[in-house]
């Protein structure tokens, strides 16, 4: 099952062969948001390689995405942990062997759970920093020669959590602030060699693993409170991805494209705005204090 289908070619604003002959390498590509980013790229002519930790999930996603366009190739790269740069380097080598090149990189693999400071161990904090921030760095490190050769482009999947203080997300906010800083500095370092680096910061996107982990069943109320009066869709993020990789964005680098219906502008915090009530269970949990 895919989220997008052939109708995307008629209903979206993009040309069908926009990415013909190009290859996108996606970490977290079997997940929810990054999978649909990959679907859009494949529908629009690209081949893809998706990296995941789970064998079955990654293989199944690759097969489904490949079925979207006749003649497309989607390589499954399972059992790869973005915290290990050597595993990523092997995944890149396999991609180049099977697909010939890498033009675009989506660094999307991420880890998340709700935890207040008192219940967040040092290792829990480190795990999220390592997956989100070190994993993003490792992804670019492993793909660099291909990006340089092909004057490629990178999209980091960030968030809006660090624009203000979002409770129970201090680990993720800290990691994503680092991801934004990484992207900005890479945009400057890579500009002269023709590589662009940008972030997409999704807001509340419906039917994603992130929302399932974070919303606490508040879906309806979140939509009401977003200025554009709806939750985002995975296609909203896919469309932003297509724009940033397309020639239309050839002068855009070091940017963060926030795709959130205006939510962060009014400090929504994804439904944690009522946190003393909505998430009272976290305060009521037995005292943590674990190192
Ligand atoms: C407190 C927790 C916890 C929880 C895990 N830990 N879950 N602490 N509350 N709910 C702690 C563990 O106890 C352990 O610390 C440490 O975290 C590492 O846990 P492991 O299970 O050993 O780590 P690992 O197997 O590497 O798993 C990493 C993970 C896991 C982040 C904890 O949730 C994961 O793999 N997630 C990947 C998928 C995912 O999260 N997708 C959502 C992406 S959405 P101790 O001290 O006990 O050793 C997203 C959206 C971002 O990112 C922005 C949205 C707004």
TrEMBL record:
EC number: 1.3.1.124
InterPro entries with a match to the protein in the record: DECR2-like (IPR045017), NAD(P)-bd_dom_sf (IPR036291), SDR_fam (IPR002347)
Molecular-function GO terms, alphabetical: 2,4-dienoyl-CoA reductase (NADPH) activity
One Pfam family cited in the UniProt record for this chain: adh_short_C2
Enzyme class: oxidoreductase
Statement: the UniProt record of this protein carries the keyword Oxidoreductase: yes
GO cellular component: peroxisomal matrix
Protein name in UniProt: 2,4-dienoyl-CoA reductase [(3E)-enoyl-CoA-producing]
Gene Ontology process terms (BP): ascospore formation; fatty acid catabolic process
The organism's place on the tree of life at top rank: Eukaryota
Gene3D superfamilies: NAD(P)-binding Rossmann-like Domain
Catalyzed reactions per annotation: a (2E,4E)-dienoyl-CoA + NADPH + H(+) = a 4,5-saturated-(3E)-enoyl-CoA + NADP(+); a (2E,4Z)-dienoyl-CoA + NADPH + H(+) = a 4,5-saturated-(3E)-enoyl-CoA + NADP(+)
Keyword Oxidoreductase included in the entry's annotation: yes
The entry's keywords: NADP, Oxidoreductase
């Amino acid at each position: 099952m895919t989220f997008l289908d052939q109708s995307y070619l008629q209903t979206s604003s993009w040309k069908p062969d926009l990415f013909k002959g190009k290859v996108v390498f996606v970490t977290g590509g079997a997940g929810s948001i990054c999978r649909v980013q990959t679907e859009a790229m494949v529908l629009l002519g690209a081949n893809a390689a998706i990296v995941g930790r789970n064998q079955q999930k990654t293989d199944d996603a690759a097969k489904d995405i490949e079925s979207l366009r006749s003649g497309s190739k989607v390589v499954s790269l399972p059992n790869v942990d973005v915290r290990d740069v050597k595993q990523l380097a092997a995944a890149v080598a396999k991609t180049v062997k099977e697909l010939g090149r890498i033009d675009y990189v989506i660094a999307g693999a991420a880890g998340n759970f709700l935890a207040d400071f008192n219940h967040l161990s040092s290792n829990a904090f480190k795990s999220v920093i390592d997956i989100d921030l070190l994993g993003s760095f490792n992804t670019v490190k492993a793909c660099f020669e291909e990006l340089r050769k092909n004057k490629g482009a990178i999209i980091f999947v960030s968030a809006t959590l660090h624009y203000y203080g979002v409770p129970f997300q201090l680990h993720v906010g800290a990691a994503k602030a680092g991801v934004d800083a990484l992207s900005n500095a890479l945009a400057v370092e890579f500009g002269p060699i023709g590589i662009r680096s940008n972030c997409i910061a999704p807001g509340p996107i419906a039917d994603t693993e992130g929302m399932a982990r974070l919303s606490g069943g508040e879906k309806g109320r979140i939509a009401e409170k977003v200025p554009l009066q709806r939750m985002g869709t995975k296609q909203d993020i896919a469309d932003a991805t297509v724009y940033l990789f397309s020639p239309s964005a050839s002068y855009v680098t070091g940017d963060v494209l926030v795709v959130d219906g205006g939510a962060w502008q009014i400090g929504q915090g994804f439904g944690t705005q009522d946190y003393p009530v909505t998430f009272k269970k976290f305060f009521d949990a037995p005292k943590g204090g674990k190192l």
